[in-house]
Amino acid sequence: MATLAHPRPAAHQASEASQAPATTPRRPLPALRHLGPNWYASVMGTAIIANAGATLPYQLPGQRVACQAVWALSAAALLVLLTARAGHWLHHRDQARAHLLDPAVAPFYGCLSMALLAVGGGTLIVGKDLIGLPAAIAADAVLFTAGTAIGLVMAVVVPYLMVVRHKVEPAQATPVWLLPLVAPMVSAALGPLLIPHLPEGQPREAMLLACYALFGVSLLATLLMLPLVFGRLILQGPLPLALTPTLFLVLGPLGQSTTAVNQLADMAPRSIGAPYADGLSAFAVVYGVPVMGFALLWLALAVAMLVRAARRGMGFAMTWWALTFPIGTCVTGAAGLARHTGLDAFAWLAAALFVLLVAAWLTAAFHTVRGLAAGRLLAAPR
To answer: How far is the CA of 249 from the CAs of 15, 68, 136, 252, in angstroms?
Structure first.
């Protein structure tokens, strides 16, 4: 942030220079002070484009190359953001602690886990074409381990803070509260990518069952939280305009859990014996189809509320990134159901949702770049 001052006579400047200390401590960049954990949502939303696009039932010429480029962009964005957030904690520790104690901001700490997991999964899906399979396996193993550990910690820490430190009212319940609870489900959906690269026998079975345990952690926690969110909408009315896009966050646990059960079913025959492998394959369809149906119902409700907010003058905010990753999980969930049912309808659904995902990403990315260039997005909140 630049400051302007009136020019002073040269004699005064020379006098002040002679009295100034030999070294002046460097001041941290003011922009970093207001860089919150919500920015990781942009990394998640970018990585899911690559992950979903590369696994679509329909592939166009050049589609995989485009997914590789998007994955590289998400990896670069993750590195930049990790560095910037480290600077935030180093130079603005008071603000970082304040974020943890703010019930509106603390749930976004779950986004760090999901950003690491999404980029790591993309490394094995498309990044291996650029950096080679051994490097991709190593990178994903590191990112998956770190992302899962952070996700589990935040799934405990954030609800704990909400209970003992945050002062929340029923009217404050928003889908943002789901963020730290969805992170273990992302681990459950992307963990199966590592199973073929583990030794046969107990390592693979342990990984498979660990992912199912993560699936249960996230699913049951979401079932506890989701009624609070829906009840707030019914009893308190629509969310504030800027928070309306967060309604799409409800799609996250729905689409991601459908993706998880299908991914795990793919790996079950390599990891666990009969009759469990066949049972898990059946579970992927029995669970995934009804949940995908509810996801489409919620998508229609969220779109209607978004149109309402737009007509009332909703401006751009970083909450618009909530339109990307959750829709992307529905793309991968529908693609998984297409594999296991053989129905063209699910393949068409995945393709249609992917078009919606790309449109949402282009919109959010354009406004984010423009807001950064204008300095609005990193300014102090009003």
So the answer is: 59, 26, 29, 5
